[in-house]
Amino acid sequence: MILFRKFRVLILMVFLVACTMHIMIDLLPKLEKRAAGSSSSAGGGGGCSCAHTPGEEPRSWAKQRSRAAAAAEPGWPNKHSLRLLQDFSNEPNSNLTSHSREKVTERAESGKRVRPLQPDSEKRGLMRDTVSGQKQRAVQGSSSLKALYEQPLYKTDLPHLSEDDTLFNLNSDVRFYPKAAGQQEWHNEGNVEEEEYSPTGEATAESYPNWLRFHIGINRYELYSRHNPVIGALLKDLVSQKITSVAMKSGGTQLKLIMSFQNYGQALFKPMKQTREQETPPDFFYFSDFERHNAEIAAFHLDRILDFRRVPPVAGRLVNMTREIRDVTRDKKLWRTFFVSPANNICFYGECSYYCSTEHALCGKPDQIEGSLAAFLPDLALAKRKTWRNPWRRSYHKRKKAEWEVDPDYCDEVKQTPPYDRGTRLLDIMDMTIFDFLMGNMDRHHYETFEKFGNETFIIHLDNGRGFGKHSHDEMSILVPLTQCCRVKRSTYLRLQLLAKEEFKLSSLMEESLLQDQLTPVLIQPHLEAMDRRLRLVLKVLADCVEKEGFPSVVENDLDGQPSSHHHQAHGGR
């Protein structure tokens, strides 16, 4: 009987110890956060009790949801899942960038030298070494990119800009940005000395955040000027600005996230779905292909080298999925799709038409993921855009063909249809065709223009994620608009010839330009070489057109202040 009582007491004590440990495990993260908060407030100095920064509100929301709503709503992860996810955000490895993690790995390998390098690791290490060597040579030696921009073709002037030619009137339109133009605090951490204000107390244009300065610079002829320093600063903001909220973008076939920053800017985030080396499977239709984050980055750089300047600024960024997506999102549908994979990596999949399931989840290493961030254009309420159906739109059907695929004289019909019967719109379509062919992008079903400028303006090259899918195949059907119409701007024609020369080789210029991105190498060598090959094919098509129809009929002069006949006709008809 005594032994039985002792056994019951022992069981009770074990049970109490287990309960105590469970309670301590639950409270430990909260105590750590409280200690971290008190130490940061003590070390910050000044005892500021001012309003919260924009980044604090989503974090408090996440904490409240984890305490109360997780148990109440079945859609939210349970305590155990939350604890696992929180462990990753507190893990030292999750706060390291890819470069710093490589340094740690290198030190460990140099100390141990037990395991041989795996083939993938060896390949990645060689690529990193090559990139660092190229960066050093670019700094030490001459820059082909800089020499290109010194060419006369890249120094042509725009016509004089009137108020009708600029998207915003600086004195009146900017006030409609309630969160930006009405406040003088841009939260430029570490750059307080750069903020300038006019004597009247109103913020000057130079003190606006870079995303707003980018919007102000948009005009009838270009998204941004050639040597605008704001673009470089905006690219840095996309990489470094604190992410304060995240939401899924509605519409579209694949997952995209809208990210908001501490300076009230916004960008579209496309996460990494494929490695650099993976090609689109040959049995995939163009409309079911993956959207690639590195294609968005490369498209921006290609567009700039071609001197179109019609792609909004795009930069690559390494994002912490726990701290910079899950912890700051208010999108419950996105939040509930986070989980921990069998390999102990953080994953999520969101909601979309294609590839949004656990089988196609986006997983970090352990919670770091690459992605492209494209700067937002001005809000539609402030600057309306018109969406146009591309005349050479594909059928987006497994068996049907579009009209242009079966009618060789299709362009003659397009030339008689507004807005392609006058102005530069048809020539802009040819620019877009060349741009898409160099990337291998078959997914150009619509395009957009700014409504304020009517039909006499450029085409915005949006949504380029399905480019650079196949380096081993040149899709000649993308060039059909050029082969059918045989029309091109003189400026485009001369630039293509310049980029075909050895000293200004397109692949070399792209390689140098992409070194500026954080996720370099953005493209592997076969994709760079494919662009040179495709450029020769474009010039061959144009040479055949000139031989068939004559140079004046094919090449429209848009240089030397001499408008083409179509351009003159458009302005005469205003």
From TrEMBL:
Compositional bias (Basic and acidic residues): 99-112
Residues reported to bind ATP: Q254, K270, E291, A374, A375, F376, L377, E448, D463
Region (Disordered): 36-76, 89-142
Superkingdom, taxonomy of origin: Eukaryota
Annotated FAM20 C-terminal domain residues: 338-552
Residue positions binding Mn(2+): E291, D463
Keyword annotations from UniProtKB, A to Z: ATP-binding, Disulfide bond, Glycoprotein, Golgi apparatus, Kinase, Manganese, Membrane, Metal-binding, Nucleotide-binding, Serine/threonine-protein kinase, Transferase, Transmembrane, Transmembrane helix
A GO CC term assigned to this protein in UniProt: Golgi apparatus
GO biological process, one term: enamel mineralization
One GO molecular-function entry: protein serine/threonine kinase activity
Cofactor: Mn(2+)
InterPro entries named in the record: FAM20, FAM20_C
Compartment list: Golgi apparatus
Catalytic residues in the record: D443
Biased composition (Polar residues): 89-98, 131-142
Membrane-spanning intervals of the chain: 7-25
Similarity comment: family membership: Belongs to the FAM20 family.
Protein name per Swiss-Prot or TrEMBL: Extracellular serine/threonine protein kinase FAM20C
Origin species: Carassius auratus (Goldfish)
